[in-house]
From TrEMBL:
LOB domain sequence ranges: 9-110
Sequence similarity: Belongs to the LOB domain-containing protein family.
InterPro entries assigned: LOB
Descriptive protein name: LOB domain-containing protein
Species per Swiss-Prot/TrEMBL record: Lithospermum erythrorhizon
Length: 172
């Protein structure tokens, strides 16, 4: 990261705190002069002393990520004083659960379509040369669609169709 070569150009932290900025200033690489608002937010939530202590304990290679994280967390804490960034985390976790449900539904629909395709006997023109049509489908395959619907109604959620299908074929 390019650092200002002049000592008379204080970093945002030193400018905000109205103190002289040295070349060894721990804030200098992470709070450039133009980032005064960024430092003000972090200072308001964490305090300059705590930020300095934290940065000194972190390896130099990880400090930039730590500062980015502190800025985000401080901004969210000011935006939502009660929950801070936890409200965003909870919202994202809820979205993951909803999308997982949609994905499970899509997998279930795909499984049903695959089973229907396997159950429907293709016309002789659809079969590759030399492949006889399948005539003996197990009863479990035919009843699988109704079994899936029953599971959805009874459990009020989308079950894992792949494991149920494996269980059906293991029972035979």
């Amino acid at each position: 990261m390019d650092l200002p070569s002049k000592c008379n150009m204080p970093c945002a932290a030193c400018k905000y705190l109205r103190r002289r900025c040295s070349k060894q200033c721990i804030f200098l690489p992470y709070f450039l002069r133009k980032d005064l608002d960024k430092f003000a937010v972090v200072h308001k939530v964490f305090g300059a002393s705590n930020i300095s202590k934290l940065l000194q304990e972190i390896p130099v290679s990880d400090r930039e990520d730590a500062v980015t994280s502190m800025v985000f967390e401080a901004s969210e804490r000011l935006r939502n004083p009660v929950y801070g960034c936890v409200s965003l985390i909870a919202s994202l976790q809820k979205q993951v659960v909803e999308l997982q449900s949609v994905l499970n539904t899509a997998h279930a629909e795909a499984m049903v379509l695959r089973l229907r395709m396997n159950m429907s006997e293709p016309s002789p023109t659809q079969l590759p040369i030399g492949v006889p049509p399948a005539t003996n489908l197990p009863d479990e395959t035919i009843n699988y669609n109704s079994y899936c619907r029953q599971q959805l109604v009874e459990r009020d959620y989308v079950p894992d169709y792949d494991s149920m299908l494996m269980q059906l074929y293991q029972d035979t």
